[in-house]
Amino acid sequence: MRKKDSSPSLIWKPRTPRGGRVRRLLLFVSGLALYPGCLVHATKNPTLAIKLDQVGYLAGEPKIALVASPARTFEVRRSSDGKAVLSGALGPAATDPLSGDTVQAADFSQLRQAGTYYVYVPGVGKSWTFVVGSNVFKRAYYLAMRGFYGQRCGTAVDLGPEFPGYSHPACHLHGEFHPSSGASGPRDNIGGWHDAGDYGRYMVNSGIATGTLLWTWEIYSPNLKPIQLRIPETGNGTPDILNEIRWNLEWMLKMQDTDGGAWHKQTSVHFPKFIAPEKDTLPSEVIGTGSAPFKGTCATADLAAVAAIAARVYIPYDAVFAARALDAARRAWQWAEKYPNVTFRNPPGISTGEYGDSNCSDERLWASAELWRTTGDTAYHQFFLNNYAAYLPGLDSPATEGWSSMGPMALRSYALSRRKDANADAQAAIRNRMLAAARTIVSATAANPYHVSLKPKDFRWGSNGIAAQYGMDLMIANVIAPNRDFVNTASDDLHYLLGRNTFSLSWVTQVGEHSVLHPHHRPSGSGEQPGPWPGLMSGGPNAGRQDSVLAALPAGLPPEKDYADQTASYASNEIAINWQATLVFLLAGHLH
Ligand code: G3I
Ligand code: 9MR
Ligand code: ZN
């Protein structure tokens, strides 16, 4: 049972023997789906017709809820006593192309008094509760960041008294080389974060996730430094976010061969059943390309980039580790120069996630930017300057970034650098392009009835990661050129993820009163905990419908409806470290 939780927005309680509130909530939700109109009047429960951020709103920022059932007025009521603190008229009805919903806005931006509230709409019902205040997202940040701790592989994990039962003994301790790696025999490659709902560890997805978290630290360290994550290293003198990141960095470094190259992934030969981590006894194979040089360029260049960032970030806390990381980064870079485009496909007999990518030049560009930022060496700088221009269009909205497309991150890194030897023309070209894209996102988001930056084509595998990515891009633009509109629009994307969406659902487990219950996440689905592991973001609606649950949905739905809170829906309801890292960045940018 959670105790002493200062945030009222989290109401998860473990299931009681008789079913308890989870079951009641499910019954209520399924009832609503069957009888959308009548239940809302008959019950005191919140209605899904009102959509808002179930965590809350920063006092100084715009505050909008959306009402998807025709009405005229709304009130904001204090949750302690139901007293109305503000009332107003709903805005005009607008039909949202993403969800098909017709919504009216309840704008209560004037409300600045800290407190816990709900929105009440006569004739429609009341909303989930939310908080208005000065540091509303701190608990969500804590849980989201701690989500990485829960993904740790090769060690026992225990979320402690805050989440009793959320623990597992050490897992995946049997590592070995798969023949595709060019080596054989056992391999001590224990560690890292489980990638997602499966237990694999994949270098390119680790690369973007770890890089994003290191950037989170670099950009927001003053706010993050004091936040303790209650992990085994807490109190060792290093900020906890860096303690957690290091867990994965150590594994990434182990994936480097003596020649400098990095193998692509470490997984079992096929996905295990839905079992707890320690019950998965399939050997953990270091998997390579199947022919010389066996390592892959995308993985190796990502290692170079991430280790280069680590080399500058960890200096004040552990100079020896920082030097080790830099040496690894330089050796990885050299390998990638020698083998500029060794790509990866699953070798015969391997069916785990492929994370295939036909072009590693963007990963190399990212490595050059990070290595230059850390060392100032002209060779890295020159490589960047010779190659960056072709990637400028990738910054335009919608940006192309993702685990297979690191060009935008390479350019953003260069734009963020404050080195004196930076090329002014290159920086100006990148910054201008980023800012133009950010302005485009601001106006497009304002024009969307739900105030979310997503476009119809963004509803693919991991669309929630894309929503968070829009927010992250806006926050980085705000670092380059501070602009209230960039921050407010990034908040809009956060609000979408935390409940202001067609399902009135927070896509982060155990964050918000109505949040995802059945993520495709083996530790959550193995039946050993009372509910999903906390703080994890679901991948979200996916019009690609690559699983049987989505395939069975009615044809022709608007893209945001292509979602199911069901364990079997790996294409819409899995969690993954790359999306999670982007969420962490966005939350970190909203801490005060
Ligand atoms: O590249 C095409 C693009 O040209 C096209 O416009 C778009 C339209 O849908 O599809 C693009 O390809 C998609 C690709 O992701 C890039 O977005 C594929 O259809 C889609 O199947 C692919 O999904 C990937 C998925 O694995 C299946 O391979 C996801 O990006 C990736 O995040 C996901 O990663 C999995 C790992 O394999 C295993 N571990 C869990 C993890 C998360 O689900
Ligand atoms: O659990 C797997 C998930 O991590 C992947 O993202 C997904 C797509 O590669 O595949 C999942 O595994 C499913 C497999 O592909 C098909 N059989 C059912 C598996 C889920 O239990
Ligand atoms: Zn494991």
The radius of gyration is: 23 Å
- Helix fraction, binned, reads 25-40%
- Principal-axis shape equals globular
List segments where confidence is low: pLDDT < 50 over at least 5 consecutive residues. 1-43
- Strand-pairing-aware structural class: alpha+beta
Mean pLDDT: 93
Task: Assign the CATH topology of the largest domain.
Answer: Glycosyltransferase
* CATH class membership of the largest domain: Mainly Alpha
By CATH, the architecture of the largest domain is named Alpha/alpha barrel
Percentage of β-strand residues: 5-15%
Beta-strand segment tally: 16
Give a description of the structure.
The protein is of the alpha+beta class. It folds into 2 domains: 56-136, Sandwich (Immunoglobulin-like); 138-498 and 574-588, Alpha/alpha barrel (Glycosyltransferase). It is 38% helix and 10% strand. The chain contains 17 helices and 16 strands. The protein has helices spanning 20-34, 36-42, 138-150, 203-224, 240-254, 297-313, 319-338, 361-375, 378-387, 407-416, 424-447, 463-480, 484-497, 522-525, 548-551, 570-573, 577-588; strands at residues 50-51, 56-58, 64-67, 73-78, 84-89, 94-95, 102-107, 115-121, 125-126, 130-133, 157-158, 167-168, 175-177, 201-202, 265-267, 284-287. Strands 2, 4, 5, 8, 9 and 10 form a 6-stranded mixed beta sheet that branches. Strand 11 (157-158) and strand 12 (167-168) form a beta hairpin. Helix 4 (203-224) runs parallel beside helix 6, helix 11 packs across helix 13 and helix 12 packs antiparallel against helix 13. The longest helix has 24 residues, at 424-447. Residues 1-43 have low confidence and may be disordered. The protein binds ligand G3I, ligand 9MR and zinc ion (ZN). Ligand 9MR binds at residues 196-198, 271, 353, 570, 574.
